[in-house]
Design goal:
Distance between the termini: 14 Å
Helix content: 25-40%
Structural class: alpha+beta
Radius of gyration: 16 Å
Amino acid sequence: MNSYVALLYSIVLGPGRRVVMADLKKMAETLGYQAPRTLVATGNLVFQTGQTSTRDLEMPLEAAFAETFGRHVDILVRSEADWQTLAASNPFRQESEADATQVHVRVMRDPLTETALEGLRRYCTAGERLAIVDGDLWVHFPGKASESKLLGAMTTKRLGIGTFRNWNTVKGLSEMLRS
């Protein structure tokens, strides 16, 4: 069995309606995935299966999600090894240890290239710093991420399918995968 993490783009289904993590685990079980677990109510699912291709896991998860919850949500899957590499590659380690809420990674379905940064740099008006590591976009927000002009510029239309996780979530999922 191989371990994987699935990252939901959103757990908001509509006004006042969110995905219940117990229902998400049940959905994973209907797909035949073993030992599904969630990290609080954040739209992160850890599970085991014999399959090895993350792309072959994303589409069934998205289809099952749409059938179960009545809405399409992009879901990105990473193997345990890939997630541990992502966690170890944090280019803003010192900043994330000082304040984990200031460092985020946008996990991408298709890898970003350095040219993607050029279009984003003009939105870095409050000291934000960017780095692409193995195709994923790392961001250090010295202030509140929600107040940054950069956040609004990092859209699916501009960058492709991806989803953000803060450093606390990255570490929490890393620990879940090891246990």
